[in-house]
Each structure stands twice: as structure tokens, then as C-alpha cells.
């Protein structure tokens, strides 16, 4: 039996098509937490960096002073007080334009032998689930993205949405699953198009943000699910690289999966406090300060999925007015959101109150835009062990390059702090 403690991730390589990569993949954290800068570090060092396509018009406004959000609010301003948000539709042309710029900016700056992929969420419904997803997927392909990772949903119609794109069989396409059952459903649809995924990311119960599990998440284990997925693919005579994600905190953790047959690992938590990460300093320092008991999985997300976050996340208990006319990214196909419902119920119950509180849901769009939803991985409380502490008690932010190389070359469960 191989002594995994003495091996490092650089002893392995991920093969996709005819290309080889360092088997490190950055998770696609939104909103613009996995920035272009962060993804490009992975690409330059030979790994695969993910962009997120969450709220891209908002991200492009922030980066390039465009007016997508402001113009949308102006268009639908008369509807702000209306509980029916169904008229607040996204302009598909503007959505394509924003996604195109997001990807082109990254691809034009890309250096090194690695890849830049984009994480596309099915549950980013945007008041028009089918057309908005189709626009985002095809704009990314047209803009030259190296690969697309389908996340936050089963994505049963997603390959059909891309099948007529000239890069449908050229770009890498993968799927994130949390069970063999979910993978079976996707592969059944993929077989109809004779377009199997190029990789499968298995996201376990210790991941950050929305989880692919119920509130019984603690009963599941990433290694076990990964082995089940690999066994199923082998039984089905399918040679598809499997990439586990969620709770892989050290290079040695990663080696243990690679030794079991995984093709690479996906990592996120340790990069949330990197210099290149899009989180503001306040959030990064809250992550450093967190203890294990400060992290919870709750049902506050209006998407209906459990979500892991810091208990101190500022969005919890807020009664902020819904800003669907500006954002509205999680409105379903009928313009519905459970936070909007709960907000209106609280307003009706407290008509004389100037400020209300909604305890059981959060306004995900507005608070994600303002970085007030501090989603995090299970091992966020260990981040303080990865960086130097300043004399005032705050922590220094390591570079993404340092963290990448620590994963790549470390052994024996070691974590090296920056010099």
C-alpha cells in the first residue's frame, strides 16, 4: 500500500482530452468571489481556474462601470412595490453581452498551460430559467471559454441548449453531482446526444454555500460518494475523470483521493482569504476569526437548498426590501421568490414598523451583491492556521499562488504559511 503522507499532488496529472493539468481545480464561487484574477492564477500555474457566472451583469457593472443593473431598475421602477415580480425580465441580449465580456476579459489575459472554466448554475433562474441559462451557456462558449461546469441542479436540458453551438464538442463540459442517482439521470440525457461529460465533480457534504443534500448532510461522506461514482462509471464502461470537492483542506487530503483513483481535486475554502479573492476584507477577517461552532447549515436560502454559512453573516434576520427590479436572480419562472413572500407577510403583520425583520429567509440576491452572505466551507475555522497574524489580531492574506503551491507540493498533512 502506498504511503500517501509522503506523496504530493504534483506526483499526479489530470488528463482531459489531449491536455494535461496539475490536478487542482478552483471551485466557481459567486458572486465574483472566484474572480478572473484568481482563476488566472490557477491557469498560469497549470491547474484549472473557475469563474462563476452568478449575477454577471452586476459583476460587469462593478468592474467596468456599465449600467446593466441601473438601467434595469429604471425600466421596472414602477413595479418596486408590487409583490408580483413576473414582469421584471432580463434582457437576453444584455445578458449575453455581459457574459461575453466576462469570459473574453479572462481568456485574453490567460497565461500558462492551465485552463479557465466557468461554473454555470441551473438554479440561477432569473425569472426565465430556460432562456437565461441558454444565453449564459452559449455566450461563454462563443467567447472562448476552455470549459463549462454545470452546477446547482440536474441540468437535464442543458446539453440540448448547447448542441447547436460550434464549440459544443470542443470545449470541456462537466457536471457537479452529489450522488450516483443524479449522475445517472444526467448521463441518460447525455447519451441521447452522444456527448458524455468530460469530467464529473463530486461535491460532498462539507462544501461551502448551497449543498446537494438535505439537512441530513452529516450522514454522507465525500470519499464514499466518490468511490460509488467511480465504481458506477467503471461498471458502465465509461472512462470519465472524477474530481471530488468539499473539505479537501491540504495537499495530503487531496493525495488520499488521487490514490483511490480520483483524477483531480476541486478546492475553494482556502482561497477565500487569498489576495485575489473577491471577498471584502471584513468577510475575510470574519473567516479567519471563525471557530467550528460559528459555522452552520441552515435553510435560509430562498432556493430551498440547505446552505452552509457563518452564523454571524449580516444577512441573517435582515428585513431588507426585495430588490428584484434591480437583481431578481433567484426569481423562478413565475416571478416568485420565498423571501419576497416572507417580506410581504412581515410588512402586513407590522404595518406601523419602519424596519422589519425576516428571520427564516434571506434576500439572497441583494445580500450576495453586497457580500453580506458569508457562505463558507466546513473547515473555514482552520483558515487561521494557514496565514500569519498581525499585531492587531488581524490576519495577512496569502497570495493565491502560495496556496496553490502549498497544495501542489506539500506532504505529511503540512500547511506552510507564507514567509
How many structurally independent domains? 1
Strand content: 5-15%
Reading the helices and strands in chain order gives EEEHEHHHEHEHEHEEHEHEHEEHHH
What is the level-2 CATH architecture name?
Answer: Alpha-Beta Barrel
- What share of the residues lie within helices? 25-40%
Strand order of the largest sheet: 4-5-6-7-8-10
Q: Count of DSSP E strands?
A: 13
List low-confidence stretches.
none
Q: What integer value in Å does the Rg equal?
A: 21 Å
- CATH top level label: Alpha Beta
Q: In terms of structural class, how would the helical and strand content be classed?
A: alpha/beta
Mean pLDDT: 97
Tell me, briefly, the overall form.
Answer: globular
The CATH superfamily name is Aldolase class I
What is the count of DSSP helices, taking H or I runs of 4+ residues?
13
Give the CA-CA distance, first to last residue: 35 Å
* CATH fold assignment: TIM Barrel
